[in-house]
Specification:
Two copies of one chain form a homodimer. Chain A is α+β, with helices and mostly antiparallel strands. Chain A contains 13 helices and 23 strands. Helices cover about 35% and strands about 30% of the residues of chain A. The longest helix of chain A is centred in the last third of the chain and has 22 residues, at about 375-395. Chains A and B meet through strand 2, helix 2, strand 3, strand 5 and helix 5 of A and strand 2, helix 2, strand 3, strand 5 and helix 5 of B.
């Protein structure tokens, strides 16, 4: 690594994503990067966590076509306003001009909801809980950044339909729980805010944003949950017959996440040596590096292979690095790639019946060879240390204030709830509103702008 | 099912893919269907087989961008000739016309190979073995058919680079083995033919096609393996430094498959009752249907739950159908969806300590409750019966002839090897050439057209 994280976070990030073999940014279309095998495997491990959560909560996985006809896309007025300027248009096939233009989904509401209106007939079809993991496309005009702002996005989106607002609200709470389980496994601390009306998702009734704090003290939105009420079901005519025979519009919700989750992991846990991966998603959880002295090669090699075998039996994803390189060079490579635990085995360790474990955060200890089953505990302690460190950073950088004051990180200021005061806070602080803390935090002060009674805190921060 | 398979195979196929809940064809773009949860789960199980084979053979999974700049696509002249008329073009983003048109990958050679030229520097980087599972797009002008001819294709593609032709040839043989393992798990019999020059892949040096025989006696190509030699590495400048310091062009191969594999499974194994799934890919491998009589509900339910639990412990994907429907209606549903084994449990079975197993192909037997571990064997016998039946059908419909004669199925005719004779055979038989049998079959006859010494058999068939 040429750049130090502590000296220039954004430059360090741009370098480390390639150095750690996550992606290659040399593809000749701006904002469209290549997922290298190591990065793709991590992303697939992340996907498997959310797939597990979806399965537990009865969501079914679907796959809808990528291309959306213009006429479908234009059915919901706010939605087209929000996304119209950033969609890619397919206009031709071969030499032929298409009768109707098709767009590459920036998100899939308009593709799914037309079909939902065919799938849903009666209250017995509800709730309908679906999700898909797909590539989506947005023509970003801002500076692109690997995993954080790209034009082809690896995207997770859950879409649900319900009998009424109340049932959809229950789904929102379930989504909040799912997010909790998901980010816990990744050891990522986060905050949830109810976005202000002027920044909610195009077409939503309200939006919850899930944000993390990056080392640059700017926030990154990594997930969002939307209550649509019947905003989409009306134009798309998603209706059901209730128990009394009456036809009603469904209420809908969505939950979305993207490869930004990986961007957050890289940004939050990396250091000057490279990235650091929580064990749940690490393609290699433990790497064994033999420390070989002349004449002892066989003994060490045999022990390394035995340890590898035992760890794999326990379900630990293990790699034995037998390359013809110095241990120091190997340490360097695996630290760069963020492997949670390194196991060093030399002739003296074999004789003493011990192995040395070095966690990616520097903690080193000797454990008994016979106590190899402690490895899983070591992985989970490592994850906890990652989490604690990031949680401390987050907590220290949330500032709950009574008046406007310039601070780095996340600021919470008493707010009357009126858009003009919120926008003025944004302007004075040169920050973006994240919204109202969720769950809501009691606020008894006065609006920092107009002095009227405050209804909520408004959270603000600089953001990616 | 309204249509009988035996009466109108193609109509039956069109109906069963929707009735069995594999896909929904009502999406308003022609040839782009919706994968429903059941169909998508089957496809993911198919993908997991090929992922396993790729892992065993040291291929690494990547994900390349969908959009290919026009200039990259045009680098290989034959390739653009082959695909130019069927690509979708992105010309605009938002309101803006793009400086360079982008196309939706019909296959990914041109996207990957530009980057391969950056990844490969020396012989130590070779062989490079990669694959990806992605959505590809072809503007098909022929009649579309679910899984068989669609415009958005779920696609598997392996791409490899080698030091020379010989090493690339070894890869071709490895691919043939991989295909063998893959189709064995799916219990699908197939034939391999070396495609004639006039029908090889656009840009290939030669192509092997893997075909299956559908009940309509038309063949369906389900996979293909291509030797590119240096046809792509020259325009894309994929070079490496050999051990003596000389710069050489790589030799390349690809192996491709698509959702057609699922189309083949549906077509070959289905019957008038619905589809039939080989156990390896069945989302539900065993469905338990309680046969309930009044007063015995608890006893039966308890036994069903115990059996489900035991089967799941053994790793059998099991579903207990407790819906408020008659057993007959349940049988109907699960036969339609192709579940390999149905387990019926009634009060008398509980008392006798037995369970009744009905395989999807009709074979019914009673097994001891204490011998539940036989289920796995029953699944594999079911798979074998599927295979044997399809193999018999394939074998009976390959006709090795000396002269041109009209036959249904696959015909093998002595051929001098000249294009004009091959094309005349196609014309006379109203069939397509599949190519020369692979591995090659000795042929001592005379070309059925010109009467000169035959070099090979030429295989012909009607095809999808």
């Amino acid at each position: 690594m040429k750049v130090k994280k502590s000296e220039d976070f954004d430059e360090w990030y741009n370098e480390v994503v390639e150095e750690a073999d996550l992606c290659d940014k040399r593809y000749p279309v701006k904002g469209m990067n290549i997922w290298k095998p190591y990065g793709w495997e991590i992303q697939q491990n992340i996907d498997s966590i959310i797939r597990g959560e979806m399965k537990k909560t009865g969501h079914k996985e679907v796959y809808f076509p990528l291309l959306v006809p213009e006429s479908l896309f234009k059915k919901e007025a706010d939605h087209i306003k929000g996304f119209g300027s950033e969609v890619f248009w397919v206009t031709h096939a071969g030499e032929k001009e298409l009768e109707e233009r098709l767009l590459l989904r920036p998100t899939s509401e308009t593709a799914l909801y037309h079909i939902f209106s065919l799938w849903i007939r009666s209250h017995a079809d509800l709730p309908l809980k679906t999700f898909q993991i797909v590539n989506t496309f947005r023509y970003e005009t801002k500076m692109t950044k690997a995993f954080v702002r790209v034009r082809e996005i690896h995207f997770f989106e859950a879409h649900t339909c319900h009998t009424d607002f109340k049932d959809a609200e229950k789904q929102i709470l379930e989504d909040v729980k799912i997010a909790g389980n998901f980010f816990d496994k990744l050891a990522i601390p986060y905050i949830i805010s109810k976005r202000p009306d002027w920044d909610k998702f195009a077409g939503a009734y309200y939006s919850l944003g899930i944000d993390v704090l990056m080392p640059s003290k700017k926030v990154l939105q990594v997930a969002s949950i939307h209550q649509y009420r019947d905003n989409f079901s009306r134009p798309f005519e998603i209706k059901y017959e209730d128990e009394s025979g009456e036809h009603r519009y469904c209420h809908q919700t969505t939950y979305g996440m993207s490869e930004r989750v990986l961007g957050a992991i890289v940004g939050i846990y990396g250091d000057d040596k490279g990235i650091a991966l929580p064990s749940f998603i690490a393609p290699i959880q433990a790497v064994i590096v033999p420390i070989i002295f002349k004449g002892k090669e066989d003994m060490v090699k045999k022990e390394c292979e035995a340890v590898k075998h035992e760890l794999e039996e326990m379900g630990v994803r293990t790699h034995l690095d037998m390359r013809d390189k110095t241990p120091g060079n190997k340490f360097y490579d695996w630290e760069l790639k963020g492997v949670p635990l390194r196991i060093e085995i030399g002739p003296r360790d074999v004789e003493k019946g011990v192995i040395t474990i070095a966690a990616r955060d520097g903690l080193k200890k000797e454990i008994k060879r016979s106590g190899l089953d402690k490895i899983k505990q070591e992985m989970s302690s490592f994850d906890s240390r990652l989490f604690e460190q990031a949680k401390k950073f987050l907590d220290e950088n949330i500032h709950t204030l009574d008046y406007i004051e310039e601070k780095e990180g996340i600021i919470e200021i008493p707010w009357c709830g009126r858009e003009e005061c919120g926008l003025q806070m944004e302007e004075e602080l040169e920050m973006t509103s994240l919204g109202i803390p969720f769950p809501e935090k009691a606020c008894n002060g006065k609006c920092a702008i107009c002095g009227n009674e405050a209804k909520h805190y408004l959270r603000l921060a600089k953001s990616y």
